[in-house]
C-alpha cells in the first residue's frame, strides 16, 4: 500500500517574514499536501501571532503550483456552512482545484467561546456537525440551496459555478465516535484521526496501534452499514498526538519505522508538523527536510 507524506504549517508567521517561504519550501520538498489549522487561536500560541486559515491558503495557492492545500481541520465552532462554502469554492478556483477540506465537530478550546457563546456539550457538537456537513455537501454541489434546520439555515444560497474539483472538493472527516464515523462514511473522501487522546500522556506505541486499528475497524463498520467499501476512503493520521509524540522526527530511520507501522495499519497519508522552535512541535529542520526527501522512497522498498 502506498503512503503519502504531508505536512501541516501552523499560521503563526507573518507572510513576508517566513510565511511564504515555508509554503514554497513544502512544495520543493515534495510533500503531497500542506495543511493549516483552522482556528481563531490555539493553545500556547494564543498570545502570539496567528493568522486566518482561508487567507493563508489563498496566498499559498498563489505561490505554489503542484502542492495540494487544505485545512486540518475546520469545524462549526465559528463557521457557517453558507459562508464557508463560498470561501471554499473561491479557494478551489484560485488554486486550480488543489484544495482538501479537513473538517470535524470541533472541541472546547478558544474557538468554542470566542463568539461569546457558552461551550457546546459533546452531544450538541455532534448534533451541529450532523447538520453542518450534509448542508455543506449540498452547498458545494448544487447551484442553489434552501434549508431550514435546528442549527443552520440557507435561503436560496447560490454557489455558481461550484468547485473546480467535481462533484466538489474532497472532505477529510476527522472522527472517532460513532456519529462522526457515520458522517465520514457517507460524506468523506478521507478519514482523519490523531489517535486515542487518552493514551497521549501514559500510553505505549503498542496500545496506540491497537486503538488506531480499532478506530479503523469502526470506520469499516460504518461504511458497511451504508453499503460503501471502506477502501474508497483514504486514512489520514495527523501525527504528534500519539504516545511517540515528536520522536519519529528525530531521524530518518525512526520516521521510516513509525511510518511503516502505520502503513501496515491501513493509513494512506501521514501528516507531520512543520518544525516550530520552542514549542511542542520543535524538531531539527535539517532532519525534517531529510525525512521529507528520503523517507518516501524507503517506504516504497
Structure description:
The protein is α/β, with parallel strands linked by helices. Helix content is 39%, strand content 17%. The protein has 8 helices and 10 strands. It has helices at 19-28, 53-63, 81-95, 122-141, 178-187, 205-225, 252-264, 285-300; strands at residues 4-8, 33-36, 68-74, 99-103, 144-148, 153-158, 171-174, 190-193, 234-238, 269-273. The strands form 2 sheets. It has an 8-stranded parallel beta barrel, surrounded by 6 helices. It has a two-stranded antiparallel ribbon with strand order 5-6. Helix 5 links the parallel strand 7 (171-174) and strand 8 (190-193). The radius of gyration is 19 Å and the shape is globular. The N and C termini lie close together (11 Å). 39% of the residues are buried.
Helices and strands, with pairings:
Elements: E1 4-8, H1 19-28, E2 33-36, H2 53-63, E3 68-74, H3 81-95, E4 99-103, H4 122-141, E5 144-148, E6 153-158, E7 171-174, H5 178-187, E8 190-193, H6 205-225, E9 234-238, H7 252-264, E10 269-273, H8 285-300
Parallel strand pairs: 1-2, 1-10, 2-3, 3-4, 4-7, 7-8, 8-9, 9-10
Antiparallel strand pairs: 5-6
Helix pairs in contact: 2-3, 3-4, 4-5, 5-6, 7-8
In short:
The chain has 301 residues and is an alpha/beta fold. The chain contains 8 helices and 10 strands.
List keywords for this structure.
alpha/beta, 8-stranded parallel barrel, 8 helices, 10 strands, globular, 301 residues, single chain
Amino acid at each position: 500500500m502506498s503512503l503519502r507524506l504531508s505536512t501541516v504549517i501552523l499560521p503563526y508567521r507573518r507572510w513576508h517574514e517566513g510565511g511564504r517561504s515555508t509554503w514554497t519550501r513544502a512544495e520543493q520538498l515534495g510533500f503531497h499536501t500542506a495543511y493549516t489549522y483552522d482556528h481563531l487561536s490555539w493553545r500556547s500560541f494564543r498570545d502570539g501571532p496567528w493568522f486566518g486559515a482561508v487567507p493563508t491558503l489563498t496566498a499559498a495557492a498563489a505561490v505554489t503550483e503542484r502542492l495540494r492545500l487544505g485545512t486540518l481541520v475546520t469545524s462549526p465552532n465559528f463557521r457557517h456552512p453558507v459562508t464557508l462554502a463560498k470561501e471554499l469554492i473561491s479557494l478551489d478556483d484560485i488554486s486550480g482545484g488543489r484544495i482538501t477540506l479537513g473538517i470535524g465537530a470541533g472541541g472546547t478550546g478558544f474557538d468554542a467561546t470566542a463568539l461569546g457563546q457558552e461551550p457546546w456539550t459533546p452531544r450538541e457538537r455532534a448534533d451541529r456537525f450532523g447538520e453542518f456537513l450534509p448542508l455543506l455537501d449540498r452547498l458545494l454541489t448544487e447551484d442553489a440551496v434552501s434549508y431550514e434546520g435546528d442549527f443552520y439555515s440557507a435561503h436560496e444560497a447560490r454557489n455558481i459555478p461550484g468547485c473546480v474539483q467535481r462533484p466538489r472538493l474532497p472532505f477529510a472527516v476527522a472522527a472517532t465516535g460513532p456519529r462522526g464515523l457515520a458522517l465520514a462514511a457517507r460524506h468523506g473522501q478521507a478519514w482523519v484521526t490523531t489517535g486515542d487522546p487518552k493514551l497521549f500522556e501514559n500510553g505505549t506505541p503498542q496500545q496506540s496501534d491497537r486503538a488506531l486499528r480499532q478506530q479503523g475497524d469502526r470506520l469499516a463498520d460504518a461504511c458497511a452499514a451504508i453499503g460503501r467499501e471502506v477502501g474508497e476512503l483514504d486514512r489520514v493520521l495527523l501525527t504528534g498526538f500519539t504516545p511517540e509524540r515528536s520522536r519519529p522526527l528525530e531521524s530518518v530511520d525512526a520516521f521510516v519505522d513509525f511510518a511503516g507501522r502505520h502503513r501496515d495499519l491501513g493509513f494512506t497519508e501521514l501528516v507531520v508538523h512543520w518544525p516550530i522552535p520552542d514549542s511542542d512541535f520543535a524538531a531539527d529542520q535539517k532532519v525534517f527536510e531529510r525525512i521529507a526527501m528520503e523517507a518516501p522512497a524507503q517506504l516504497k522498498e
